[in-house]
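Task: complex structure prediction.
Instruction: return structure tokens for all chains below.
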Amino acid sequence: MSDIPKDLKYTKDHEWARQAGSLVTVGVTAHAQEALGDVVYVELPKVGSSVTAGKQFGVIESTKAVSELYAPLSGKVVRVNDALTDKPDTVNADPYGNGWIIELEPSDPKQLDELLDATAYGELLKNG
Amino acid sequence: MARRTPLNETHRKLGARMVDFVGWDMPVQYTSVIGEHEAVRTAVGLFDVSHMGEIEFTGPGALDTVNRLISNDLARCADGQALYAGLLNDQGGFVDDIVVYRFSPERIFICVNSSNRDKDFAWMKERAQGVKPVDRGDDFAQIAVQGPKAAGLIQRLTKADLSKVGTYRFTEGEVAGVACIISRTGYTGEDGFELYCAPEGAERLWNALLQEGQADGVKPCGLGARDSLRTEMKFALYGNDIDDTHTALEAGLGWIVKLDKPGGFIGKEALEQQKAAGVKRRLVGFELTGSGIPRHGYPLLKDGQRVGEVTSGTLGPSVKKPIGMGYVPTELAAEGSTFDVEIRGRAVPAKVVKTPFWKKP
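Output:
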């Protein structure tokens, strides 16, 4: 079973969300990067753009496949992880740390409560 | 229910991720596509390619029968030589691309794509004049051993003198006690061999190669690395880069078409006409000069107009660039020509480059 940190929230599409003050950092889970294989390209949204909960905000590509990235919650993109442009495999090496993808200013922080907690996400993977 | 090679359980024990590939349950990767790709470029990798098909023509006249079916000229080969050839339709398009092994003028052995096994056999049966083909697909497993350390590894497991087996030559002998056709061929751009053996011997051969190859840094490799390695060489994949609607000349495979060979071959007339009229579109290799990765099916645009589509594309692990292939009008086919690849609604600039994309440093 892949690593599922207790302090994060999760989507059914295998993104994670971490609240830090008024901002939320978003990435993909250890399970997602494992399933994708070697990540070779991440298409990031523009800083200042808006994203909508459940809607696509970017693309992540492995050697073999193209996968959509879905926003865990709605808001404005305040930061993107530009380091992934040169080192996309950071998503494989450190999915919950340096492999983060975007930082959001949520328009409705209560949407966080609608996401899965670690236990529920673990169940989802188990029943996969 | 997907078909399984004799090595299916072995792959599972090694922790391979299995996928359905044209009806076969095959390993796509064991640990990492890039790691496996690198192992082949720098050391040695093992591929189970037992899903490939084998068809044999045996008896007096076998050579002439096969030579009329294929675009290349087997009569000019020596016994013990392998030949890459097109199995073409009457329009000059590909029924399949194949490797033909000349054991003798009376024994010709052919390796065909897994996706085309049944189609090729039916085609050959219908069109062969003289000797009839025999489907030997279930009689052989095949392991590709590819990389600069492949020859050394196999040499330690066989009495056959591999220094006498040149590129696209083959011999027969035991490897790790398993009777094999030992063929110096491959689909990676590296030196290496393809070993054909009876299905019962496949596991013993695989495990011996894996164990003996530890010192060489051997890795079992999946279809993911096989695809990235061949793409960096601009080797065509049937169903992507070549098919029954694109001719051998359009595919840039004129070198396997021998229009002047005695006896002719199926597709010859169509190709002669096309050559006389001029080839209107060509398969090119390109790299993106903007950001993104070209993928099969993405449109190719010139000044906003669709002029073709990507047939294969990836981020080349060795060339470290987004590379692809596709058919474009001949006027856009010269090296340095530019067009765009449409990636999720964006027009990303690309330019035609010299191929193979990968050259040994």
